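quick one if you have a minute, typing this from the bus. below you get a single protein, a line of residues and a line of whole numbers that encode the local backbone shape. could you go over both lines and see whether the tokens make sense for that sequence. anything you notice is useful, everything is just below.
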Amino acid sequence: QVQLVESGGGLVQPGGSLNLSCAASGRMFTIYGMGWFRQAPGKEREVVARISWKDGSTYYPDSVKGRFTISRDNGKNKMYLQMDSLKPEDTAVYYCAATNLLPVGSRKDRYSYWGQGTQVTVSN
């Protein structure tokens, strides 16, 4: 089992920045990749960034490319999401997730482990 705990959400004005953290524990040697997902009210949960736990390769959808940066610290079993130039449409609950499947993909059904989520609100 793997346990995930997010932190760092909050309220920020449009154009502002936030940094989310995910602390992982448990059988991390079984994990191939991790990702950040978000879910806005009435919408499907979607990936905003993912990273290979082994080689650090990353993926971003076009909606956040150039604004969000995912990173990891294997030694501390931590993952981060730096979010810049935030927009109101980025408002959502953000979830940290981990997968023990290969290849590491973007579909939420490939991720077995999830955090509890942290609210990000972008508003004046």
